[in-house]
Amino acid sequence: MLIDTHCHLDAAEFDSDRDAVHAAALAAGVERIVVPAVAVDSFQKVKTSVERYAGCAAAYGIHPLYAMQAKESDLAVLRDWLEREQPVAVGEIGLDFHVTDSDPARQEFYFVEQLKLAREFELPVLLHVRRSIDQILKHLRRIRVPGGIAHAFNGSRQQADEFIRLGFTLGFGGAMTFPGSTRIRRLASELPAAAIVLETDAPDIPPAWLGGGRNSPAELPGIARVLADLRSLPEDELAAQCAAAARAVLPRL
Q1: Which strand (E) or helix (H) includes residue 23?
Q2: Among the four residues 23, 77, 176, 195, which has the most C-beta atoms within 10 Å?
Q3: Domain housing 222
Q4: pLDDT in tens, 40-69
Q5: Rounded to 5 degrees, what are φ and ψ at 27?
Q6: In this structure, what CATH number is given to the domain that contains residue 51?
């Protein structure tokens, strides 16, 4: 079984052919797709998508790059959705210090408040960790949640080990398919099997063979093949390991 643990199927990039994108993913052997929200305004579209398409599951949260537009009342809305909809995780949440036009303090406020909600509802979290891993780990040590996934992980082995110690798995996707991504590929080959999950982040982070085009969940088998080669495993064994890791960290899948 292949599980895409991070795919924005609700994104506008799929508005013209979402049915076909989902059908192609199923035909490729992708049986489960986690669809994380990025803002309160996207919650209903995520809900509609996961109800319409077989095998899809929702996560609800406020993405750090949407923190500038968020209102504190959005946290009450999120609380209501977590209680009513029973998602698989709180997400996509986290920090992004790559961008220069965002307020780090405002990002941290929404991240911390959402960690508190995840702790309250005993839900794992889907983490956005771009150039912010140490700060995220600092908050995770203070506000303990039931694990989750460090999405698009590209940190050090030491940081990876700390996430694992805190009950997290690490998401590997399109970036791993580039031969020049030596650190990511080394981690993908060396980390414990139980710590690795597959993802596409579609429509973003396309694998090498797309040449920068729109990513889709149907690319997950190709990503899995790259990981299987890096770990010197048969593809079906690799897929089973990653699916088991995903189900362990997201028990509602």
Answers
A1: helix 18-27
A2: 176
A3: 2-249
A4: 999 999 999 999 999 999 999 999 999 999
A5: -65, -30
A6: 3.20.20.140
Q: What angle do CA 221, 222, 228 make, to 5 degrees?
A: 85
| Token pair belonging to 85 | 């909809």
Amino acid letter, 37? A
Ranges of residues in the chain with a pLDDT under 50 are none
What pLDDT sits at residue 101? 80
Closest CA to 167 of 145, 200, 138, 139: 145
Look up residue 73 and give its amino acid: S
Q: What is the DSSP letter of 96?
A: -
Angle between helices 73-85 and 104-121 (to 10 degrees): 30
- Under DSSP, the state recorded for 63 is -
Torsion of CA 63, 111, 173, 160, to 10 degrees: 170
The tally of CA atoms less than 13 A away on the side-chain side of residue 173 is 26
In the chain, the number of structural domains is 1
CB contact at 8 A, 88 and 55: no
Give the model confidence (pLDDT) of 77-112 as tens digits.
999 999 999 999 999 999 999 987 889 999 999 999
Q: What are phi and psi of 91, to 5 degrees?
A: 175, 160
Q: Which amino acid is at 8?
A: H
pLDDT at 100: 79
Instruction: Give residues with Cβ within 8 angstroms of 141, minimum separation 6.
Output: 166
d(CA 127, CA 44) in angstroms, rounded, equals 21
Other CB atoms within a 10 A radius of the CB of residue 211 amount to 7
- Per-residue pLDDT at 211: 95
Question: Alpha-carbon dihedral of residues 219, 85, 74, 109, nearest 10 degrees?
Answer: -70
